[in-house]
Amino acid sequence: MDALGIFSAHVIGLSMGASVAQELAISFPAKVTRLILVAGECGGSESVRMQPEILTRLMDKSGAVQDVVNRMFSLLFPPSWLALHDPASYCPEIYETTGDEIVARQAAAFFSWTGAFSRLVEVRSPALVITGTDDVIVPPVNSRILSRRISGAEMVEIPGTGHGLMYQFPDQFSECVLRFLDH
Q1: Does the pLDDT at position 131 exceed 90?
Q2: pTM above 0.85, yes or no
């Protein structure tokens, strides 16, 4: 932000990006005007992790690109939604998938993060926490923890959505974000 001459900004973080956004808001409070955490967790022992079988499927990058995409779609979206919708028509076209080395590095970073649970009380910017009620990657209880720990945080749970909630219901997701930013 400094290199670009940006004094402050609204910050939105999704999943692991929500962890990064928390650290930014805590470490540089003047830089974060409004904080939006989507499908995030506080990290450390206070967070509720995904089930081991979900992690195994998430880390599995074997097979052709379409095999990996289908596996990811089955994790990003609830089965009830997948039964009625083709996720490919809701998501950007996928030409390649993340390689094993990048997946391993991301997992190492995510699981070694000691978390922000005890420091969340230091967040000074207005905060919005959004989660899907059927998220199996970052269970929704994590968003409830975040919203309780951040003073005055607004909490939105979008029913019937998973980790890919912004693709499932883009209008509803955008309305939540824009309403929060307009305050």
Answers
A1: yes
A2: yes
